[in-house]
């Protein structure tokens, strides 16, 4: 596997972490129920995670560097609403993977 593919897969996995962090906050010791956080916001977040997750996964698997780079950069931009790109980690990883895919010959 190429470097951009590994970074893209790791960034895509961090997107899943960004989806489940609010779910665990809903079941925390302080709140005692899912009503305190609101499960509608969790399902609303699932809509936002599907687009960057699919783009990041497809961009990491594709062998064509130009298409993979564009898909990974788009996935990084679309990952920002998901817990700020999981504190910016998935955003940076997907962006670096996209730039590496576009710049290497």
TrEMBL record:
Keywords: Membrane, Transmembrane, Transmembrane helix. The chain crosses the membrane at residues 7-30, 36-58, 70-102. This is DUF4064 domain-containing protein. It comes from Candidatus Aramenus sulfurataquae.
């Amino acid at each position: 596997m190429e470097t951009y593919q590994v970074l893209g897969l790791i960034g895509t996995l961090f997107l899943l972490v960004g989806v489940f962090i609010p779910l665990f906050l809903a079941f925390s010791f302080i709140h005692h129920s899912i009503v305190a956080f609101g499960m509608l916001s969790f399902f609303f977040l699932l809509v936002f995670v599907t687009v960057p997750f699919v783009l990041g996964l497809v961009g990491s698997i594709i062998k064509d560097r130009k298409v993979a780079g564009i898909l990974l950069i788009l996935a990084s931009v679309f990952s920002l609403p998901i817990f700020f790109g999981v504190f910016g980690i998935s955003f940076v990883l997907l962006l670096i993977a996209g730039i590496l895919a576009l710049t290497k010959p």
